[in-house]
Design goal:
The protein is an alpha/beta fold. The chain has two domains: 98 residues, Aspartate Aminotransferase, domain 1 (Alpha-Beta Complex), CATH 3.90.1150; 237 residues, Aspartate Aminotransferase, domain 2 (3-Layer(aba) Sandwich). Helix content is 40%, strand content 16%. The strands form three sheets. The protein has a seven-stranded mixed β-sheet, with helices on both faces. Helix 8 links the parallel strand 6 and strand 7. Helix 1 crosses helix 10, helix 2 runs parallel beside helix 10 and helix 12 packs across helix 13. Bound molecules: pyridoxal-5'-phosphate (PLP) and allo-threonine. Pyridoxal-5'-phosphate binds next to helix 3. Its EC number is 4.1.2.48. This is L-threonine aldolase. It comes from Vreelandella aquamarina. Keywords: Lyase, Pyridoxal phosphate.
């Protein structure tokens, strides 16, 4: 970032700090020793709280990051000779450096287009029926991202339609829930309504983007897929010895309700930013703002000028453009500063 200015962070929800609720539980967990490798009371409580929250007796595992969560979950859902159908902008395709293929020992990702970053039943079926010969990696899993990489969400009806297509072709359904909380907030839907009730077999639920330092929860609603999964985590270096420092902050999010209020705030900030940007001449929104990220087209000179002013944002996500991501701690003041700077740099001729 070519700037002497103080950096200002809207590149990702990954740049935010630890929210107070998570920090409180982290400090409480630090008051005493406890058993290692997930045998502690915090991890047991967090897993039980997830089962209460989802109203389902699911299997729960904790890993350090989202790439591990997706890669290991997918490795448990199909075999090495299978394929995973995902959107062409899916994180597992674009930003996990071959992790899903590596941990599944070779399962191939088959990508499908779709408006607003979303898979469609038709796109799925086109890949499933494309070929049936022995040389084609047999589709076995559908992976969708909720909220999507471009800040949109799947409605319940869209999820049910995808589940129906998966049933038609004996496919399992994985959900990359890096921003699952944002989808619940956006749709005013319960976790159950957006997962097992629409046929999701496994959810990777990000805590990192929801106010934790790190820590992702993997929930298996199809518990057969979770057989020996803890061994997969251990072999991948994802079994934390002091697991309580991952699970206790999660418990803070769940027991305080901050998992949802953090997402509601982030979404509200994104809506505020989206409305402000759209009011500026020459700024066009690339996707509907339905969760906590805003994608806009900006001229190259404006992008460079904003970065020189200390703004951090990505231009390589999704279909390009500038992506601004709001988090649990994003403020209106910060967004007003950005809006003023965007206006200023756009007023300057290239
Ligand atoms: C949609 C999506 N899925 C998965 C991940 C993976 O997370 P991590 O960077 O923790 O591996 C990210 C990262 O932010 C993401 O945006
Ligand atoms: C850069 C990377 O895609 C990360 N998952 C993010 O959304 O910020």
């Amino acid at each position: 970032m070519p700037s002497e200015c103080t950096p200002r962070f809207l590149a990702s929800d990954n740049t935010s700090g630890i929210c107070p609720e998570a920090m409180q539980y982290l400090l409480e967990a630090n008051q005493a020793d406890d058993l290692a490798y997930g045998n502690d009371r915090w991890t047991a409580r967090a897993a039980d709280r997830f089962r209460e929250m989802f109203d389902y007796d699911c299997d729960v595992f904790f890993v350090f990051n989202g790439t591990a969560a997706n890669s290991l979950a997918l490795s448990a859902m199909g075999r090495s000779y299978h394929s995973v159908i995902c959107h062409e902008l899916a994180h597992i395709e674009t930003d996990e450096c071959g992790g899903p293929e590596f941990f599944s020992n070779g399962a191939k990702l088959l990508t499908s287009p779709g408006a607003n970053g979303k898979l469609t039943p038709q796109g799925i079926e086109a890949l499933v029926t494309k070929r049936s010969d022995i040389h084609y990696p047999k589709p076995k899993v559908v992976s969708l991202t909720q909220a999507t990489e471009v800040g949109t969400v799947y409605s319940r009806e869209e999820l049910l339609a995808i589940r129906a297509m998966a049933d038609k072709h004996d496919l399992r359904l994985h959900m990359d829930g890096a921003r699952f909380a944002n989808a619940c907030a956006s749709l005013n839907a319960s976790p159950a309504e957006l997962t097992w009730q629409v046929g999701v077999d496994a959810l990777c639920f990000s805590g990192t983007k929801n106010g934790l330092a790190f820590g992702e929860a993997i929930l298996f609603f199809n518990r057969e897929l979770a057989e020996d999964f803890s061994y997969r985590c251990k072999q991948a270096g994802q079994l934390a010895s002091k697991m309580r420092y991952v699970s206790a902050p999660w418990l803070g999010l769940l027991e305080s309700g901050a998992w949802l209020t953090n997402a509601e705030h982030a979404n509200a900030m994104a809506r505020y930013l989206s409305e402000g940007l759209q009011a500026l001449p020459g700024v066009s929104l690339m996707f509907p703002t339905q969760a906590n990220s805003v994608f806009v087209e900006l001229p190259p000179h404006a992008i460079e000028a904003l970065k020189a002013k200390g703004w951090t944002f990505y231009t390589f996500i999704g279909a390009g453009g500038a992506r601004f991501v709001c988090a649990w701690n994003t403020t209106v003041e910060l967004l007003d500063q950005l809006l003023a700077d965007v206006k200023a740099v756009l007023d300057v001729r290239a």
